[in-house]
Amino acid sequence: MLKEKIKQCLLEKLVYPQDTSEIQQRGIADIFEKRSCDALKETFSNTRDARGKKSTEDIMVENCYVDIKTSDVAGDMNMPNLISINKLLKIDKPLYYVIIKYDSKQNNILDVLVLNVYDLNWDHLGFGNLGSGQMQIKNMEKFYESPTTDLSEDAWKKKFKEHVILFYQHLIEVTQKRIKKLQE
To answer: What is the pTM of this model?
Structure first.
């Protein structure tokens, strides 16, 4: 299965960057993203680079989108944005998230998760108010305890739409309060 092959490839080939003393979290994430894409290109014959900077994927592997995320367990803020609501509604190929869990204080990679978007556990997902809304993991520490769901893909999509409607209804309420405050 592709998920397992991607995970095995990255567990074997990824190494923690040597000198990160002057690199911030985003810089480390960029290094992991590039090294992951390079490793996948070396391992799989059917890969394509991302279509652009705002593409869903960091790389295509065997006609599947692969989006690489990182999570530093030594850091404070761990609520990564995953995908915009609009993009997920229009997705036309399988989407896999590669989540590289690392510790910047210990300078090591702790784990690599590869999850289909429809495997993500709704207990840990929410939406941020950016553009049409961004699906995000609310708390990575809790996410690692139970990252996957038992829902079928159809049930997951139904729950996604229910959550989006609740999110938009909440935004309407917040916006109405802001308007009312301005009118006072």
So the answer is: 0.90
